[in-house]
Amino acid sequence: MTEQQPQRDGVDRITAQWRAVRPDLDTSPMAVIGRLSRASRLLERGIKENLTVHGIEPWEFDVLATLLRSGPGHVLTAGELSSAAMVSSAALTNRIDHLVGKGLVDRAVDPAHRRRVLISLTDAGRELTHRLVEHHLAGEERQLAGLTTAERDQLAGLLRRVLLTLGDHGEDPDRR
Q1: Are 86 and 171 in contact, with CB atoms under 8 Å apart?
Q2: Does the pTM exceed 0.85?
């Protein structure tokens, strides 16, 4: 009985080309980083397609989900939301304007601190976000269908180690 050859992906082709041209180089880092990069793009495309069914862009979902997961009241200051959603305050202002226009969030001055702005989910925003989270997780489940639960746990642990090695401690890397 012959052992089945593993399927090849686009990164296998690229690393094989490099081995042919430069057999003296260790392309194993390229194999990992290339796969992470390609997986990121494919996952993002799948998430976008999944949310578009509901007329929502991924960045809209990020803001709505951040507010929903903030706990009862679903209210954050603009600064807290910017930090939790890992976007700059300038980008957040445009996003909030857009979501206010759609009737999904409210913006109000904090009566206790007049210089702070409070962002909260509207009833419509809260209802939509609850539905979206379920739909989003079902889409992510489909994207990871090729892995067992144990493999997902192992991959999550390995990716955590990569992120920690890269200095990820929860803040937005673009805000440094």
Answers
A1: yes
A2: no
